[in-house]
Amino acid sequence: MVTFVGEHQSATLNEIRDRLISAGGLAISATHLSRLLADRCHLMLKRLHIEHGRYNSAKTIQAQPAWVHQFQVEMGSFDNAIFFDKAGFNLHSSRSVGCAPTGQWAQQTGRPADCKPNILLLVAIGKDGLYATDMVTGGWNSVSFVAFLNDGLFPDIAGQHRTLVMDNARFHHTGEVQEAVEQAGHRLCFLPPYLPLFNISERVFSKIKPVVSCKELCDHHNGLTNVIDSMLSTITANDCTGWLRETARWMIIAEHGHPLGPEHNASAALARHGLSDGLQVYFSSIFA
């Protein structure tokens, strides 16, 4: 049964019970099966994380060690790195689970009838904290991104020769972006595909989205942007250092050719693969 659930983690209790019966097991109730899975097998019902076929494909896993090595050779440490990413929000952002008495719906009231256009938050973040943030209605493109760099980021890092780490969004690869970065004395570094664990900007959004989802938002964007701005102001340099350390742990795992993602905690993954020894030495090398 444990093997079946491990290979079919989205299986329902009825499907697991049918499998148990077909394998010669006893016919038990769904309630009894749920308790058995929790108490004896230590399997808990969790939010399902969707992983598409390319995320941990052989090609993706094989590309990761080479990228980590190149990152270490060309950058040396995280001190120079500034990470970029964007995330969308709207007035219908909400939690997907809640509590209610038996026989009643779990409801979150007061939500606007119209979600309005998406707001896309873009952040630039590094070891010292947030360097620049901006929100646009609709979406980002090469023109607005270059304006963000020239007006929001580059004046604060003039003469520092930073490495700008970003994903493979199409407009990141345009000539306009490349030219703007090079003229400012910086360089681009693109993350390998399907590797959000290497981008600490994702941690910013994971801190903001749960708060946005539980707020009673008004029928306009001001309430939403105010909540986002309020949460951005709580992000500290200590947060960023912790996120970078977690990223460094995942880089060790990727460098050794292991798939990423089964554990939500990199320390647990390091221990499972026997890679915890030498962690402090690695930190010393990647944090100047």
TrEMBL record:
It comes from the Eukaryota. Residues 82-209 form the Tc1-like transposase DDE domain. Transmembrane segments: none annotated. It comes from Ustilago trichophora. This is Tc1-like transposase DDE domain-containing protein. One of its GO terms (molecular function) is nucleic acid binding. InterPro entries: RNaseH_sf, Tc1-like_DDE_dom.
